[in-house]
Specification:
about 150 residues; 2 domains
Length: about 150
């Protein structure tokens, strides 16, 4: 069984592509950690994972079964590849772009959670308005400063 310990390290960044798709590698890392009972605070098949799974037509539980049996990352990639290949490069590029721009809806409970977390992690980073940026910031990755939307 593959090993990932998210109690002592972070999963891949949302931005890091697996087979050309953002979030997919992060979801796999969380699945491997869950299979090893080392997911820590991370949740496999969370809403962000569900978004990439939905785009690709992947069942999260079926992928987790593959992950549990896999002896290498290559085996997991081989399972995922046919799902990715059903999408055009343009569809993948659009998904990636939209996914990386996704933030909470104004006035929602998700926005309150987002702002609470951002203020706890980096109160001076009011330029951070997307989930991928917030996760990278929380996981101590460099997040370039952006112009604040008015």
């Amino acid at each position: 069984m593959l090993k990932r310990d998210l109690t002592t390290s972070y999963p891949r960044s949302v931005r890091e592509k697996l087979l050309g798709v953002v979030q997919l590698g992060r979801a796999v890392d969380k699945g491997i950690a869950l299979a090893n009972e080392r997911a820590g605070e991370y949740n496999y098949d969370c809403p962000m994972d569900k978004a990439v799974f939905g785009f690709l037509g992947i069942d999260g539980n079926a992928l987790l079964d593959v992950i549990k049996k896999a002896q290498s990352d290559a085996e997991i990639e081989a399972y995922l590849k046919p799902f990715v290949e059903k999408k055009s490069l343009a569809e993948i590029a659009t998904f990636n772009d939209d996914f990386l721009k996704h933030g909470p809806k104004s006035g929602s409970d998700a926005e309150k959670y987002f702002l609470d977390l951002r203020n706890a992690v980096a109160p001076d980073r009011t330029d951070v308005s997307t989930w991928p940026d917030l996760l990278d910031l929380d996981e101590k990755r460099d997040v370039p400063r952006r112009a604040v939307a008015v």
